[in-house]
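Quick start: what a row looks like.
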Amino acid sequence: MKIVVVGLGYVGISNAVLLAQNNEVIGVDISQERVDTLNARESPIIDVELSEYLANKDLNLSASIDLKASLSDADYVIVSTPTNYDEKTNFFDTSSVEIVIAQVIAIEPTACIVVKSTIPVGFIDDIRERLDTDAVIFSPEFLREGEALYDNLHPSRIVVGEKSKRAEVFANLLAENALKPNVSIIYTGAREAEAIKLFSNAYLAMRVAFFNELDSYALAGDINSRDIIVGVSLEPRIGDHYNNPSFGYGGYCLPKDTKQLLSNYDSVPQNIMRAIVDANSTRKDFLADVIIKTQPKTVGIYRLVMKEGSDNFRQSAVQGIMKRIKAKGIDVVVYEPALEESYFFNSRVEKDFSEFEKSVDVILANRITPELKTVSKKIFTRDLFHNN
């Protein structure tokens, strides 16, 4: 097969590398730097498996900024461009996906277009009608930042939003290139596949919010949060996973996907979806108040990323706490070696850890790393189990 992947973020690159093991794959992106990096067999994002596969595997993979030339004779085109949530419209901005779909139809009309960007429920039906095409299907992605290729090599399930031969071929392409045997494959309608993605992430966000609210209760009442969580999690119907408190759920997917799902409920009665979205703000309010009450002169932010093994700052929960603290006039210093700028939201960025530690009274760390062991007395964290 010849497969073109448009959009070389976490989703696009991991799919491109996965499929390039046994197919001709061309990755297309508007960033020349990202294209050059991939052609040099280096990963433009932090991901251990991606770096390893690019360096050591025999991949039939190239990258280009020329979409038109890349599309020639393509069998499948995977669209994985960003769909950020627009706070003004209360909806995903799907413009990049729509533009790519229209371009592919005009250039290579026989190709099957597989959308892997996260989209609202009803998008595929709508775009098919507006563009008068049946070339587009949806296959949701279930990846973790920093472990995107691993999750494609060991998929929890493969979902394709169409019951057809081309859907089966595409699902089998993903399954045949994975390391996990006997992967569960589900064929659904387009809207069902779109809903699977959004409800999956809403449930994960709900779980994070639940354990965060448990932790807030324990923190306010001066009781041992860790002991409570261990005892609760031994219930087999709850389970000892994804239960480590944090400053809130964040990253690229959970905040925007929960808001989009809430928007899809505009004419349907609901309580839980609104609570999931609101709980994240409440958690940040509570933790910011806890910190402010200690009356620090200068607060340090240790890393803007959500977790180890990630280079993504988007919607990280610590930024919400940072803004609340700054609103009270407290000085904030950010330690983020991956940030090239000298200031982040008007706060000084320090790249030397020893200088950072000396300049602050308290250090906020969403997740503990070995680097913080020497300054444990200054740390404020809710990382009770030292895992992501």
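That is the whole record. Residues 190-221 form the longest helix (32 residues). The chain has a mean pLDDT of 94.
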